[in-house]
Design brief:
Ribosomal protein L11, N-terminal domain; 3-stranded antiparallel beta sheet; alpha+beta; Arc Repressor Mutant, subunit A
């Protein structure tokens, strides 16, 4: 490959402007073809920031690898809010069910350090705590303890 470009783009809404246009402009690829393929491949992540890697050759051919959006973006999309709390220990912006936490953990599983859904859910719980999101109506900062106590084994243990 002649080169690699990495960028965060809004899922399904990339355009030839920044951040892609200035990076792709000096390359031999057709910018509109790249943008179209990115939008096609990221449509499922509509509006979320999605990491993409574009590898291109001198002949203008290219391949696109789409990553998984950041955990915070997945949580915001799943729980239906725009921005996290400025005071996450005091002001809560949303509540997630254990099923929603599991869904986000499964979506992120390839990027997390965990070996199973139970521990991946604990990582997602940590992000919930920093965003001001409660889990099952309780402060996300106590989620690890509840998971370790087996409170959610019926959902999280395969």
């Amino acid at each position: 490959m002649a080169g690699t470009i990495e960028a965060l783009v809004p899922g399904g809404q990339a355009n030839p402007g920044p951040p892609l246009g200035p990076e792709l402009g000096p390359t031999p690829v057709d910018v509109q073809d790249v943008v179209s393929q990115i939008n096609e491949e990221t449509a499922a992540f509509d509006g979320m920031e999605v990491p993409v890697t574009i590898e291109y050759d001198d002949d203008g051919s290219f391949t696109i690898e789409v990553g998984v959006p950041p955990t915070a973006e997945l949580i915001k999309d799943e729980a239906g809010f725009e921005t996290g709390s400025g005071e996450p220990q005091e002001n809560f912006v949303a509540d997630m069910s254990i099923e929603q936490v599991k869904k986000v953990a499964e979506q992120k599983s390839t990027d997390l350090l965990s070996y199973d859904v139970k521990n991946a859910a604990k990582e997602v719980g940590g992000t919930c705590a920093s965003l001001g999101v409660t889990i099952e109506g309780e402060d996300a900062r106590t989620f690890d303890d509840r998971v370790d106590a087996g409170d959610y084994d019926d959902v999280l243990v395969a």
